[in-house]
Design goal:
The chain is α/β, with parallel strands linked by helices. Helices cover 34% and strands 26% of the residues.
Length: 498
């Protein structure tokens, strides 16, 4: 058996520093030793977990990596849990994945302990697992399932996305090649570790390359900016909302702090934004403040990363670039016909070794999600001058009104430029005449006022006639997702109630 190459490569990195967390540094040798102990604790005398699901609720840390690796080395399937999840959300994952054992540090064991007791699931404190006596570990082939990540579930209950070790390796090697990861790289990790962005793009790519990860349990802006000012990092990955917060910090800082932080960002060889569309205005403001041109890319839980602006070459604001190494991408019209020309919108479909194996226990949904081996992403894009630009989700962001197909994301991009709007979400609301009408929910800036007539007058100068909002709701208490943006389902419900 070839084994899990991510873990095998750690042997070559030896005593090089791998992860720092909570004031302690751990080498690659440490990770191998700790994960072997976790594997032994999980096996508990058995020769192989044989695909048993191993759930864990652990903040970003060396312990998180050790438990993930330990689950894999014991033959288990890793099921990372969200630290922000509610008890019903955790229960759904535990029951749907049919988890056999759940781990958490003692300070968090109360989050999963009562559920485990009620559901008959073995629970294990991380500290105990890390202190277990070593034992023989099974050989693991790369075609075995490695991980189940749960989708956001905005339109239905979250589905479990099953990836094999080979899928994960393909996702890693594609990004290592495209973004030229090196052993000398240093990166902060503050992204959630139940998403591909944190697990693969940051943690796994870094550890594959022999690089160094500084882990934070959450986005600690003060601590991270301090380290940025010390030029501690060469790569930085974040979501758009974090870049917005950092822009605010830079603009409000004392001159000496602003200069030091800007120099720290300018020092990095690569800065990446993902997990949501990056507004062009934020892209341009970041370049203005730091001299860095953010690299935007596109991916999702089922496929890892598929598209990326280039490491060397034009990083076009508002676009997500071209297909990554080892990834095939095509656009397909609603009719099912392939789109072979530019400037015509179609669904993104993806094929390649990085694409997931199946939806957990949902063979019918899995079958419906593929056509001739191509995964149907449900995202709509257009190819412009060789670069893909995302228009939005078929079910949420594409509005069909008066015979036109509109991108809610494009309209939002324009509306955010209104001086009274802090945040907004555009949705299509059913209408007997138009099919859908363009409706916008807006959060106003402090002290600002906004009315529909005034917004429409402002929009007429910036939007074509059929894109002008026909409804407006001012909101301040809508549910927000992990990126801080008001959620589309909540906005649609808001309009449907009245």
């Amino acid at each position: 058996m070839a084994g899990i190459r991510l873990i095998e490569r750690a042997k070559d990195h030896g005593d090089a520093p791998a992860i720092a967390s909570r004031g302690a540094r751990h080498s690659y040798s440490d990770l191998l030793s700790l994960s072997a102990r976790v594997g032994a604790a999980l096996l508990d005398g058995r020769p192989d977990l044989r695909g048993e699901r191993v759930a864990f609720l652990i903040p970003g840390s060396a312990e998180h990596a050790a438990v993930q690796w330990g689950a894999w080395r014991a033959g288990g399937i890793a099921v990372p849990l969200s630290l922000a999840a509610t008890e019903p959300e955790i229960e759904h994952v535990l029951t749907d994945a049919e988890v056999g054992v759940a781990l958490a540090p003692r300070r968090l064991i109360g989050r999963v302990g009562p559920l485990c007791e009620r559901l008959g699931i073995r629970r294990l404190a991380v500290e105990a697992a890390l202190g277990a006596n070593p034992a023989a570990l099974p050989g693991i082939s790369t075609d075995r399932p490695a991980m189940i990540l749960y989708t956001s579930g905005t339109t239905s209950r979250p589905k479990g996305v099953v990836t094999t070790h080979a899928n994960i390796e393909a996702q890693i090697t594609s990004l290592v090649e495209a973004w030229a990861w090196q052993g000398e790289d240093r990166i902060p990790l503050f992204l959630p570790l139940h998403h591909v962005h944190g697990i693969v793009n940051v943690l796994s790519c870094a550890l594959w390359s022999g690089a160094f990860v500084e882990a934070f349990e959450s986005f600690d802006q003060e601590a991270i900016l301090k380290r940025v000012g010390e030029k501690a990092y060469t790569i930085f990955m974040a979501v758009p909302t974090i870049y917005v917060k950092l822009i605010q910090a830079l603009e409000s800082a004392m001159p000496e702090d602003r200069q030091r932080w800007a120099a720290g960002f300018a020092h990095m060889r690569l800065m990446i934004s993902g997990s949501a569309a990056l507004p062009v205005s934020i892209h341009e403001k970041w370049t203005e403040l730091t001299g860095q041109t953010l690299l935007e890319r596109y991916g999702m839980t089922e496929i890892g990363m598929a598209l990326s602006n280039p490491l060397s070459g034009e990083r076009r604001p508002g676009a997500v670039g071209q297909a990554l190494p080892g990834v095939d991408v095509r656009l397909v019209a609603e009719s099912g016909d392939l789109i072979g020309t530019e400037n015509e919108a179609g669904e993104i479909q993806v094929r390649g070794p990085a694409v997931f194996a199946e939806y957990w226990k949902k063979p019918a949904v899995t079958k419906e999600s593929f056509v001739d081996g191509w995964f149907r992403t449900g995202d709509v894009a257009v190819l412009e001058d060789g670069y893909y630009r995302i228009l939005g989700r078929q079910s949420v962001d594409i509005i069909k009104t008066g015979g036109h197909k509109l991108s809610a994301l494009e309209i939002e991009e324009v509306l955010r430029q209104h001086p009274a709007i802090q945040e907004c979400a555009v949705v299509g609301v059913k209408d007997e005449i138009w099919g859908d009408t363009v409706a916008v929910a807006a959060v106003t800036r402090e002290g600002a006022s906004l009315d529909l007539a005034g917004l429409q007058a402002w929009a007429r100068e910036r939007l074509s006639r059929h894109k002008i909002p026909r409804g407006l709701k001012l909101v301040s208490d809508l549910p927000r997702n992990a990126l801080g943006k008001v959620t589309k389902p909540a906005v649609r419900e808001l309009f449907e109630r009245v």
